[in-house]
Amino acid sequence: MLDIRDGKTLRVFGSPNLRVLGKSVVNVEYRGEGDDEGFVKRVKEEFTDFGSTSVVILDNFDGASMKVAELLVNNGFKEAYAIRGGVRGDNGWLDIQETLLPPSVHINPKMKVKKSLEVNNNGAIEQQSDVKSQPPSVAESKQTNNGYAKTSTEPNKCARSTLRSSSPYPMYPDMKPPSSPTPSKPQ
């Protein structure tokens, strides 16, 4: 299988795992019609015997995969097939994978945010986000000296974290509910 999607899409969706079928996926980005010769050259470098190779082409949608299939057949490949719908199109890989494909070849989107939970000694849960959308702090920044990069191992003191108690009475340190006044005795 030849996956012609760009690197950003591959990081989010990934390629199907075809090891159960005894096949592998080759990733070569197709940059458009202006790069046809360079693309064919990069693809031929990945396949040893391209004259007797049948290739299945996977794209986001089926627009570029049809052009690439024709391009590869015209440049010496035995056969080239485009996957109708690509990965995300109508009747594409994501649409049909639940009903027609075995679970080992499913494509699952990768999560963008990873959260780690740490339990504090009083039962509170500390939630820390690993998102790196902000510039690195001074403790995380790399310092260069004589051409070598040194990364500080100091913990980030300004990390976003929140404390949330698992107790239904978080305002009371002894973890007991407030006591109500003693009811008066009837006379």
TrEMBL record:
<dbReference type="InterPro" id="IPR044240">
    <property type="entry name" value="STR4-like"/>
</dbReference>
<protein>
    <submittedName>
        <fullName>Rhodanese-like domain-containing protein</fullName>
    </submittedName>
</protein>
<feature type="region of interest" description="Disordered">
    <location>
        <begin position="125"/>
        <end position="187"/>
    </location>
</feature>
<feature type="compositionally biased region" description="Polar residues">
    <location>
        <begin position="125"/>
        <end position="155"/>
    </location>
</feature>
<feature type="compositionally biased region" description="Pro residues">
    <location>
        <begin position="175"/>
        <end position="187"/>
    </location>
</feature>
<feature type="domain" description="Rhodanese">
    <location>
        <begin position="55"/>
        <end position="96"/>
    </location>
</feature>
<dbReference type="InterPro" id="IPR036873">
    <property type="entry name" value="Rhodanese-like_dom_sf"/>
</dbReference>
<dbReference type="InterPro" id="IPR001763">
    <property type="entry name" value="Rhodanese-like_dom"/>
</dbReference>
